[in-house]
């Protein structure tokens, strides 16, 4: 899958724990409700191009105002990690364009969480569906698991130990008919210099909007981001998408 | 009401628990907790609850008789103004203690109806209600809520506090001074879900804070109610400006 955003937790403030940038892909099949089926056939009156895709992403993606208590922090990009995850895509179709939200951080120490969103526009809804479907397949998940493990290995220096990664599928259904799916990655993170050990949770959930894949990413320690929060943010992005048609 | 499904929730306890979030509070919460406290006011509240608990058919009637057009409403603010409100309620139950399952903006009526907090508006620049609410599942399974409401003035906040804590505005409501924080008020009532709930209200300047607790299981009795009141009063001491003379480092299970 082409959409690969990522989340960086710079120093959680406890011991030597540091969480690096992780590639969190968005997998899973899109189960459509009747209204969601209409979304699957978004009319495309104009030719898709990079500028339109970027404008759409800019209008729809999360803003700081959407995540109360958050602050915008610069994204750090690791091309090597992105390349790894991009190899897991369905392949064969380059995205038209898109964009990511700022990384929205809130909380300190173990209560630090990071939320962001990403939109990738493909040349057609058919290609977007294929890309989305591949990510939910066994092969897709295995590929992402491998890419994630590799990226996390890089963090295993500096006195940090990362436990076994767990990948779970997520499905969220809301009142607006937005049916989203995604993945939850969890692991234990421990410090080699102390007995401190905490859970690390990375959620990547999203939905299809015509030729666009719309996703949010949430990273947190101790406990995962509430599913309701993720559902509400996806609902928000869906409403914005309807107001800013591609 | 959103419905969630999670494939293969056999990994972590917390993930599996997420499955049950909406059911925990399907339209109306549960809440309440733990330990005997020999305060006359509390005993009176407990007795009242013991006698009154049971009927829930008239919950909305009692509410509507007090809250109407003249009810003070929270101010309207820009998004960044909510940061401080969220920070004020966030401290009530740290994430490593309670499992947060929802949060969002709240209006004055939330504390009466127990309706769920609202998601952010579509427009990032839109004004929103100056109220914020967070809800957790406590380690003992209780449903804990903390709400911060900011009004246009201190007098408006006071007017709202009087209404919100008035027993006649609640089904089987009873009110008394809280053991702490100073000047706080306890309220026990049967919420719109038909479940006994204990709240503590705190007025500080133009803000009204509420901390509420509904038990995981319906356990009626004076001891249960006393424990619930003890818990919420202790948690309320963590609110800004609570000015408690002593703060508990733990609450009863």
Can you give me a brief rundown of this structure?
The complex is a heterodimer of chains A (246) and B (253). Chain A is an alpha+beta fold and 246 residues long.
CA gyration radius of chain B, whole angstroms: 17 Å
Q: What's the total count of β strands of chain A?
A: 11
SSE pattern of chain B: EHHHHEHEHEEEHEEEEH
User: Any idea what the radius of gyration of chain A is?
Assistant: 17 Å
Average pLDDT of chain A, rounded to a whole number, is 76
The number of distinct helices of chain B, counting runs of at least 4 residues, comes to 8
Q: Estimate the strand proportion of chain B.
A: 15-25%
Shape of chain A: globular
Classify the beta-strand content of chain A into a percent band. Answer: 25-35%
Distance N terminus to C terminus of chain A? 20 Å
Show unreliable segments of chain B: 1-61
- Main beta-sheet annotation of chain B: 7 strands, antiparallel
Distance between the termini of chain B: 30 Å
CATH architecture name of chain B: 3-Layer(aba) Sandwich
Helix content of chain B: 25-40%
